[in-house]
Amino acid sequence: MTTTPLSIREQLLALDERCFEQPASDWAGEIALPTELARFYREVGPCDCNLDTAGNPFFIPSLARLWKQQAGYRWHGLTGERLAGWSDDWIVVADQGADPFILECSTGRVLFDQHGGPWAPAPMFDDLWQMTACLATFARVWRCADEDIFAEDCSVNPIYRRKLIGELAQLLNDARRAEDLASEFGW
């Protein structure tokens, strides 16, 4: 499975999500826009994408909205006070029900953590492209399954879990990581 910026954009568009080139001038941040993040929004350009999956949808904000998404992580959403425990090297690039996907700017990796702290995010994806391709895969398999997504016990139908894991394994080049990822997100 290809994870070029164009193929990732095509995957999002096939899910009826908006994607378009977003210039660095859309960034409203108080820090410099990381080069890799600027490239991601220029080449893939997700624009407030809501990707359905088991549980809350994955949300990838537009570049113009991205800095506001840091509220509650980098600073207190009401007072604006800087929050302890949040690294200057981190930018929340997506979330699922407030659980953040965090770009570690110095490495380009995407980390993940449960909200509520203390923060101890763990590496989840090699980069933004892999993250987006995987999250889009969750959404595509979810959508294709339609009403057949759940088994009688209300768990995800094992047929679709296997399908998801197979597709994720191709993206991650690792079947074990694919299984862990599926389990992490309730599949």
Automatic annotation (TrEMBL):
Protein name per the record: Knr4/Smi1-like domain-containing protein
Entry superkingdom: Bacteria
UniProt-listed InterPro entries: Knr4/Smi1-like_sf
